[in-house]
Structure formats: structure tokens, C-alpha cells
Amino acid sequence: xxIKPNTLKWMIITGSIIAALIISVQLFWLxxxxxxxxxxxxxxxxxxIRALYGTIRLQRDSAFNVTQAxxxxxxxxxxxxxEAIPEFTKVSEILAIEFSDFDIFTDCKLGFxxxxxxxxxxxxxxxxxxxxxxxxNNIEIPAFRAxxxxxxLFFPNRKAYVLKQMYFWILSGGVLIFALIGSAISIFFLYKxxxxxxxxxxxxxxxxxxxxxxxxxxxxxxxxxxxxxxxxKPKKLQKYTIIINDQIQHLQDQTQRLLQIAYTEQAAxxxxxxxxxxxxxxxxxxxxxxxxxxxxxxxxHLENKLSLPYIQxxxxxxxxxxxxxxxxxxxxxxxxxxxxxxxxxEKHVCIGIKDNGPGIEKKHQQKxxxxxxxxxxxxxxxxxxxxxxxxxxxxxxxxxxxxIKVISEPGAGTQFLFKIPIx
Length: 423
Description:
The protein contains 10 helices and 12 strands. The strands form 3 sheets. It has a 5-stranded antiparallel β-sheet, with no helix packed on it. A 5-stranded mixed β-sheet has the order 7-9-10-12-11, covered by helices on one side. A two-stranded antiparallel ribbon has the order 6-8. It is elongated and about 135 Å long. By secondary structure, it is an alpha+beta fold. Strand 11 and strand 12 form a beta hairpin. Helices cover about 50% and strands about 15% of the residues. Helix 4 runs antiparallel to helix 5.
């Protein structure tokens, strides 16, 4: 069973939200793990320093609190308060063992600070197994002036070491995030392709539907004309000749419309502007639709009380626009009653075309100008067509830097309002 477009749309939206939540949770946990690794590093360094105090007497006071003797002025530097400066080699060896026991395998530079000299009297790297002394020759312990002697432990690559401990989590999180992003992009393009396929399918269906009837009529009319005795029936011959001519004209018009739309996809709509009068163009539109107006027994009210100014415009394209709107008004109304108002302001000529048709729901009013969009009820289309006419009208208005607006309510008819610049 095929998935409905709206269902697929909500599935994609829901999936995207879930993917975003998963990525957010993953990033949150990576941050939590990073903070945990930082805290674990601090704890292990503190434990190593406690072990150093337990092995070497660095303070005379037996009740001395080791925790209070440790300062951490920056994330990669630890300061250990001492009374007298001990033997460097012994301290280095003990710390190397303790760091190994507590899984601290990163560069650590050990320094002894003498308060009387106000400088480090000795500094060197601790020989820690598996440590990478990439910066051994060009890194110095940051200066930290104090009024007491202290041992400095400097870890220049602490951040890199902590991130290294998180490699598995970073790698797995990165793979998951890229997989989700890749899936989201793939789904988006699949949805877009499906959407384009649906448009193409709908267009082919409309195209087939639109041309099927005229071709069938032409075939019937042609078979009638081929009858041997048709010459003896001039009225019947004339009738079917007119039918053929009308159907051919209909097919030509629809084909021309398709070609015009296809052309406007490749380049800007070519305008041949000249001085023209909107009132004259509107009358010409009504004259061209006279057979349809008579067939539908339509009532047309043309209100043109003022003398409209001439404008610079492409009269042929404006004619197409008005014919399209009027033709829709005639097709969609059972007993057409159309009111046309022509007015002008200081900078625009304003045209209003109002019908008494079924009206358009608000949710469709902006979409009717989209290419191939046709208002439907279920699988039944209310009128023949490609869904190209209003899209083409909008292109014509945009080319003239004009505006088109629709006002409609279901059951109350539809009104199209045009504002065309005078200059």
C-alpha cells in the first residue's frame, strides 16, 4: 500500500526530530564523559601527590592536610607546597611510579621552586612509560610566583591526553552523528525525488485527460466526414468541420501554453512593451471569449467609469492573463455572473475580476499560483486543465512588476485583483 505524501512528510519530520534529539543526547553525553575524564585525571594526580607525601617527608607538621597543600592555578598545572626542597631524582622516581599505578601516561614536567631565589632551581620531564615527549625541548613550566617553596607538576598535553581517553566515545559518537546526518540528507533527497515524481505523474495524468477528449472528438468527426454521402449533407459537414476546427484550436492553445511555460523556465519572460490601454485589452478579452460566454449564458458587468491612462506593457501577455482569469470564472461557475472593475490610482491601474463560483479555501489560495497545482476533491478534478494557467499569469505580472492577489471564500465566489504600474 503506497504511503500518502502527507504521511510521508510527517514521518520525515518525526524522524528528523528524533535524529536531532539523538544527536543532542550524544553530544550531551560526550560532554559528560569529557568532564568525567577531567575529574578522573585530577583525582589520579591528587592520589599520586598524596602517595608522594606518604613516602617523603615534605612537611614537618604531622597533622598537615595534604589537600590544602595542593593548588591548581590552571588546568594543566599543579602546585605542591613544601618546606624544604627535596632530592629531585627521588621525587621524580616516586611520581613516575605513582603516575603509572594511576594510569597517567602523558608528558609531565617536574620543577622545584625556591622562594628565596624566586625561580625554578631544577626542572625536567618525569620518565613516565608510554609518555610522548613531543614538546620536551620547547616547553617551560608557567611562572607562578609564591612566598613559599613548592613542587610544580606541569602537564602540557593534558587536553589531548583526556581526549585520547575518549577516542572510542568520540569515534562512535561521530559515526552515529554522520550516519544520522547522512540518513537525513538521503531521506530529504528521496522525498524531494518522490515529490517531483508525483508532480510529473500528476502532470502526465492531467495532460492525458486534457487531450483524450479532443482527440476522441476529432476521431469521431473525421469518421463522419469520411462518409460517402456527407457531401449531400452540407449542414452536417459544416457542423463537424466547425467541431474539428474548435478542437484543433483548443489543442493548439494548450500546446502553446505548455511551450510558454517551458520557455519561462529557461529565461526571463520576453516582453514587448508599448503604450496600451487596459480597458481596450479587457474588451478584446471578452470578445475572444464571446462563444463561451454565450454558451454559458454568462452575465458580464464591466465597470469602467473613469478614463484609464495608457501604460507601458506587453498587451499580448496582458490579454493572455485576462483571458485565463475570465475563462476560469466561466468554467467554474454554473450560472456565471462576473463583475469586472477597472480603476486607476496615482501610480497603478487596478483591475478586479469577481465571479460567483464555488470559491477557494484559504489553504489553497497561495498554492493556486504554483505550477501544476490544481484544487481537487479526492481523486476527482473539478475542471480540466494542467494547473499551469495561474502560474503563467503570475509570471506575466512579475515580469511587469505588477501584483496579483486573490480574495475568496467557499460558496461566495472568487475575486482576482491586479495592480499594474503605469510606468
